[in-house]
Amino acid sequence: MPEKRTLFMGNNKMTKEEELTRYMTLIEQYKEQMNALEMQSGYVQAAINDYNKAKMTLEQLGKVNKGDEILLPIGGSTFIYASAKDPSKVLFDIGSGFVAEKTFQDAIKKIDERIEDLQKTMEKMSTMMQQLQNEATDMSMKAQSLISMGGQ
User: What is the pLDDT of residues 27-65, one digit of tens each?
Assistant: First the structure.
C-alpha cells in the first residue's frame, strides 16, 4: 500500500491525493473559463464583421446619387432592390431602440469607434485567455510533479 504523504498549504494540511484533486479541479475550471471566453470572442468577432460590412455598404452608398437604384444588403447574403431617396443621411442605432440621423461620414466615424472598442475588448479577452492558459499549464506541471513523486 502506498505511503500517504502530507503536503502543507498555508495553515491547512493536504494529502497528496487531495492536492492532486485540487489541481485537477482548477485545471478544469480554467478550461471552462477559456471555453466561455472563446465563445464570447466569437460573438465579438461577429459584431466586428457586421460593423465592417455596414461600413463597406455606407462607403458604397457615398458614391450613389439621389434616386439611383441600388442593391441593398439585408443580411444572410440577401439583397433587395431599392431606390436611394437621400444617400447623404443615415439612421444610426444609438441604443435602447433609438436611432439618430447622421451624415454617412459621421456614421462611418461612429462605426469605426465601435469597431475599435470591440477590438480592444478582443485584446483583453485574448490576454485573459492567455493568463488562464498559463495558470492551467502551471497547475498541470504541479500535478505532474505530484504524480512523478509516486511512492517516494
Answer: 999 999 999 999 999 999 999 999 999 899 888 888 888
Nearest to 57 by CA among 90, 85, 86: 90
Distance of CA 64 to the CA centre of its chain: 35
Residue 9 in 3-state DSSP? strand
d(CA 45, CA 59): 21
> What is the pTM for the complete model shown?
0.76
Contact 74, 89 (CB under 8 A): no
CATH class of 13-147: mainly alpha
Domain definitions of the chain by residue range = 13-147
